[in-house]
Amino acid sequence: MMLVTLVACLAAAQTADTLDVTAVGKDPGWQVSGRTTSVVDTTGKRALKLSEAPGMGVVWLKGYDFGNGVIDVDILGRSQPVQGSFVGVAFHVVDGQTYEAVYFRPFNFRAMDSTRHAHAVQYVSHPGFPWPKLRSEHPGQYEAPVIPEPDGDAWFHARIVIERPKVSVFVNGAATPALVVNELSDRARGSIGLWVGEGSGGHFANLRVTRKP
Questions:
Q1: 115-120 contacts: CB < 8 A, separation 24 or more?
Q2: CA quadruple 58, 59, 62, 67: dihedral positive or negative?
Q3: pTM, full prediction
Q4: What dihedral do alpha carbons 181, 162, 60, 138 form, nearest 10°?
Q5: What is the pLDDT of residues 126-165, one digit of tens each?
Q6: SS3 string of the chain?
Q7: Per-residue b or e along 1-31, where b marks 16 or more CB atoms closer than 10 Å to that residue's CB
Q8: Which residue has the higher pLDDT, 74 or 14?
Q9: Are 103 and 88 spatial neighbours (Cβ–Cβ below 8 Å)?
Q10: Does domain 15-212 fall into CATH 2.60.120.560?
Q11: Number of neighbours of residue 118 by Cβ within 10 angstroms
């Protein structure tokens, strides 16, 4: 009986939520910073589209409380032009300037240049630890290649597992994480969001979050 009760408690503690990104613009809970949004049908998925614009863009669900857990999402960027697509997930979000994020550079997924190839997935913690600071002070620690290499012009699936302080990033169902880092923020909780980088747009679908103790 005790084992059954324990299993039931653990199951109840792991809450899986499907967050409807197509409700952005209609549900006032969704906050948008630095971008305009639209809902489109593209290559077989109904998706949230974030516009291209100067600076970074974040869309997050106000009041959503996330600490540890798993974030699953489908993402579509593009392979061209180089430096034209930065797409990912924000977590422990406070506002449009304060959050952690894991993002991808699809133009580097299949790059023949070894340096570019090694810069395919990145962890950042804004505002204190943007990518230039991390690359300069901790080269190769907070970014990595994605292997097997996805198609930079196709949908790919990202799974981000947060077990503070560890963050692990899996792509397209791979058993081995593409990136494992320790968080640089002392903030243990916050909201969940979608992120695009400098000048970049992006498409997002099927956002699902499993919260854990």
A1: 116/82, 117/145, 117/149, 118/143, 118/144, 118/145, 119/143, 119/145, 120/144, 120/145, 120/146, 120/149, 120/178
A2: negative
A3: 0.93
A4: -10
A5: 999 999 999 999 999 999 999 999 999 999 999 999 999 9
A6: CHHHHHHHHHHHHCEEEEECHHHECCECCEEEECCCEEEEEECCEEEEEECCCCCCEEEEECCCCECEEEEEEEEECCCCCCCCCCEEEEEEECCCCCEEEEEECHHHCCCCCHHHHCCCEEEEEECCECHHHHHHHCCCCCEECCCCCCCCCCCEEEEEEEECCEEEEEECCCCCCCEEEECCCCCCCEEEEEEECCCCCEEEEEEEEEEEC
A7: eeeeeeeeeeeeeeeeeebebbebeeeeebb
A8: 74
A9: yes
A10: yes
A11: 15
The residue extents of the domains of the chain are 15-212
Residue 142 is predicted with a pLDDT of: 99
Residue 111, token pair as written in the block = 């790059």
